[in-house]
Design a protein that fits this description.
26% strand, 144 residues, alpha+beta, 3 strands, single chain, 51% helix
């Protein structure tokens, strides 16, 4: 059986197509890995923010309700000490801000507390500059 000139190079074309398909699959796996890393970092920051909010609310609930606004307000001494010790000193949240707010509730012996924790996480570097991601965690609690 004699080989035709038109059939030579067919195996090379098949190998190039297989290499192209493999390369596209590999690029897809790399993009999924990058997306999963971003989701993992966001999840870690949200968990850290939830733990900080829970800790601050526990400290507030251990205090007398009538003293919570003065002690844990934005300029309160207990709030500033906690902020310096836990958020600035020990937290892994980048550029974190904690904003407490208070609302009167239905009874004079209870207080509605809202906490907002914001952070700015560095993102992937773009062509011009780094893209930053801003995260927010908000929670409310009724203290009595």
């Amino acid at each position: 059986m004699k080989k035709d000139v038109r059939d030579s190079g067919y195996v090379l074309l098949e190998a190039l197509v297989a290499l192209l398909i493999f390369s596209l699959g590999l690029l897809g796996m790399i993009s999924f890995q990058a997306a999963s890393f971003k989701i993992m970092a966001d999840s870690r920051f949200r968990t850290e923010a939830a733990m900080l909010a829970d800790e601050l609310l526990a400290r507030m609930s251990a205090s007398e309700v009538s003293r919570v606004q003065s002690d844990f307000g934005p300029q309160g001494p207990k709030f500033l000490a906690w902020l310096d010790d836990r958020v600035v000193g020990a937290s892994r949240l980048p550029a974190a801000r904690v904003i407490p707010s208070f609302s009167p509730s239905a009874t004079p012996t209870t207080l509605l507390v809202s906490l907002r924790i914001e952070w700015t996480a560095p993102g992937a570097k773009g062509a011009a500059q780094a893209v930053e991601t801003t995260g927010v965690y908000e929670t409310r609690a009724l203290l009595f």
